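Researcher: Good morning. I'm working through a list of sequences from a screen, and I'd like to move beyond sequence-only analysis. For each chain I'm collecting a predicted structure so we can compare shapes side by side. This is the next one on the list. No need for commentary yet; just the structure.
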Amino acid sequence: MKKHIQIAPSILASNFATLEQEIKALENSGADMIHLDVMDYHFVPNLTFGAPVITKIRSVTKLTFDAHLMIENPHKYVDDFIKAGADIITVHPEAVGNVKEAVRLIKKAGKKAGVALNPETEIAVLDDYLPMVDLVLVMTVHPGFSGQKHLPLYDKIKAVKEKIRVSGKNILVEVDGGITPQVAPEVIKAGADILVAGAAIFQYPLSRYKDIIKSLRGE
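Model: Good morning. Structure tokens for this chain:
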């Protein structure tokens, strides 16, 4: 049986003037979750949105909220995102602050925890986190801006998948960065379970979302 590839559209690339309409269109088009790129202008050179926005849009959809915290000191703020309604919260081991404490707090709240790896981050970092997390997010762009060109880090994705297999843990591999229908097959072949896509979806009218999501899955 063919594995179901989950698609997580990143609303950072959407039209915020019609965000409710965008989210409902994604839900009706077969998206599995909503990816929320939270940036603090410290960990990355950009500022996006925070927990208050997530709180507002939580009532719009029942889709899983996949919050990617590109922020410093995540342990100080994860409770805000838990209360806002995030279902998966992913943090960066490269961030300043107590990242392991952030993961512990996420898990204590009954939410799923993820750890993200920047393109240059060695996968050996995962040794400290695999016993704790539910998801590993492999970045195939440098975090901070949408619309960047995909970095073909397929060997890294494969290595992460193998490390998880050896650990015996049931951990999903998510890949984020320049994902298009053209590169998706290689990313999936390398071991991705979840694909984050932004511009690849939102550059089109709402009526095209279903077709693009299907093409990302290879359907």
